[in-house]
Amino acid sequence: MAKGKSTVFFCKECGYESVKWMGQCPACRQWNTFVEAPAVKSSGSTGGISSASGAPSAVPVRISQVDTSTENRYSTGFGELDRVLGGGIVAGSMVLVGGDPGIGKSTILLQVCANIAKDRKVLYISGEESLRQIKMRADRIGAMPDNFMLLCETNLNTIDAAIRGCSPDAVVIDSIQTMYCETSDSAPGSVSQVRESTNALMQIAKGLGITVFIVGHVTKEGVVAGPRVLEHMVDTVLYFEGERNESYRIIRAVKNRFGATNEIGVFEMCTDGLKEVLNPSEYMLEGRPKGEPGSVVVCLMEGTRPILVEIQALVCRTNFGLPRRTAAGVDYNRMNLLMAVLEKKAGMQLSGCDAYLNIAGGLKVSEPALDLGMVMAITSSFRNIPIPDRTIVFGEVGLTGEVRAVSQAKQRVAEAVKLGFEECILPAACLKSIGNEDRIKLTGIKSVSELCRR
Ligand code: TYD
Ligand code: MG
After folding, report:
1. Which of 107, 109, 178, 213 to mutate to test the pocket of ligand 1 (most atoms within 8 A of CB)?
2. How far apart are CA 411 and CA 16, in angstroms?
3. Nearest to residue 241, comparing CAs of 130, 103, 129?
4. Whether residue 95 has pLDDT greater than 70
5. Most exposed of 88, 129, 242, 319 (fewest Cβ within 10 Å)?
6. Using CA positions, which residue lies closest to atom 12 of ligand 1?
7. Cα 29 to the chain's mean position, in Å?
8. What is the pLDDT of residues 383-434, one digit of tens each?
9. Residue among 139, 269, 270, 275 whose CB has most ligand 1 atoms within 8 A, to mutate
10. Using CA atoms, how far apart are residues 388 and 285, in angstroms rounded to an integer?
């Protein structure tokens, strides 16, 4: 930082700091993201590497001698959330919970606090709601243990003192965008404030071994508002997804230093808070039409868990020169690609047709195993022939119309058996990995044209 300068420029996307304004950020290549903010007063360090004589000594240790036996995990009280976190909360970790406004971030954290507070001390700090508001919400959710403490505060210096004063095991910061540090002069929610506040909280978390949950608002583009740095600093980033008019919510780990990131947790918003959905497949398939063309059930994997979803297609002759195509919950480009494959490899005249594709229930899916389901739904609607409703499909489709193997075929078939399906259409290459299966009829196929001849 230049001497004597009282303001610097930050990139809104990645937090890159520069002494002058720039059109494009050299770090993340985004345009028009620089905002001016007061310079952050660095505390302590003078910068640069001090001479060897004055430096405190640091001794490297052998990796085999690092003690991991004390990794201290505890449950959130929700099996679904524990799985997403990689087996429970790690003491001293920092978890960022992001999501659209009103999706249920405060609600789930209040419930988690209530569960943890049964045998631990918890402090819930809100910068958005008053004590009364929080209490009213807590009353809807149910009984709150005595070890659950509340604080309405936005000044991090006061918060720091409060945390040290009551030494809780877990702290919730309801919205990092409302917090501010006195060391930085810019407004709460600005890039440098969010950065400073997270830094201060990190020192508290790591120094005292307290688990800190941070709520972060999400911008229209789907990233946590404020700098991306926030995501780099914390240990775990969870995103809350779901449609406003649907009652189910999905929690997904985007980053996790203590577990895998492909797991999801499914919840339902009820009048008394969020409830776990233990069998999402049944939930997703509720109210499925029987014997209608254009509907088919696909088996997807979310992490280690199979989920069955219904995919629906509507293909009809276009009234205009340019066919209309829309995709909800699936990738629009993938849909166009698969329709081109069908046109070329199966001789279907789709270029004169409007096509609409939708995942029932509002789930968003990006797995390649969905391809075969899309192909079958489109074909079924185009030909007006229903697919038997006890049939399930999965498989990836390549550009030459070949049907390719997907991973974890055995688990997918097992889930289909569990829910009473009678036939499974799958890539022929997957048959070997499944072995003998007499509870369901397995039909292996090699190409799209073979499927369409059936
Ligand atoms: P909230 O947790 O305040 O959202 P966020 O903190 O992510 O902004 O969620 C509020 C929404 O949840 C609100 O629209 C009402 C709904 N809700 C219920 O349906 N049932 C409940 O028991 C609670 C507490 C909230
Ligand atoms: Mg909230």
Report:
1. 107
2. 44
3. 103
4. yes
5. 319
6. 104
7. 24
8. 999 999 899 999 999 999 999 999 999 989 998 998 889 999 999 999 998 8
9. 269
10. 15
Contact present, 178 and 128 (Cβ < 8 Å): yes
Instruction: Measure the CA–CA gap between 234 and 211, rounded to whole angstroms.
Output: 11
Residue of 443, 349, 335 whose CA lies nearest to 397: 335
Q: Which ligand is nearest to the Cα of residue 176, counting in written order?
A: 2
User: Does residue 145 contact residue 118 with C-beta atoms inside 8 Å?
Assistant: yes
Nearest to 122 by CA among 204, 236, 212: 212
Q: Are 80 and 276 in contact (CB under 8 A)?
A: yes
Task: Look up tokens 């914390």; give the residue.
Answer: 234
Of 438, 338, 324, 317, the C-alpha closest to 395 is 338
CA 83 to ligand 1 centroid distance, Å = 23
Query: What structural domains and CATH numbers belong to the chain?
Result: 8-37 (no CATH), 72-278 (3.40.50.300), 283-452 (3.30.230.10)
Closest CA to 360 of 326, 392, 312, 302: 312
What number of CA atoms fall less than 13 Å from residue 1's CA on the CB side? 18
The set of residues, in sequence order, having a beta carbon less than 8 Å from that of 29 and lying 6+ positions away, is none
Alpha-carbon separation of residue 273 from 97, 114, 138, 277 (angstroms): 17, 12, 9, 13
CA distance 221 to 219: 5
Instruction: Quote the ligand 1 centre to 102 CA distance (angstroms).
Output: 6
Closest CA to 177 of 163, 148, 146, 156: 156
Q: How far away, in angstroms, is 125 Cα from ligand 2 center? A: 11
Query: In this structure, are residues 423 and 402 in contact, taking their beta carbons and an 8 Å threshold?
Result: no
Residue tagged 């402090």 (tokens): 123
Report whether 184 contacts 155 (CB < 8 A). no
Q: Tell me what percent of the residues of the chain surpass a pLDDT of 90.
A: 45
Helix, strand, coil abundance in the chain, percent, nearest 5? 30, 30, 45
Buried b (16+ CB within 10 A) or exposed e, 310-344: bbbbbbeeeeeeebebebebbbeebbeebbebbee
* 188 ligand 1 Cβ < 6 A: no
d(CA 412, CA 373): 14
**pLDDT value of residue 152:** 93
- The answer to whether residues 308 and 415 touch, using CB atoms and an 8 Å cutoff, is yes
Which ligand has an atom closest to residue 101 CA?
1
pTM above 0.70, yes or no: yes
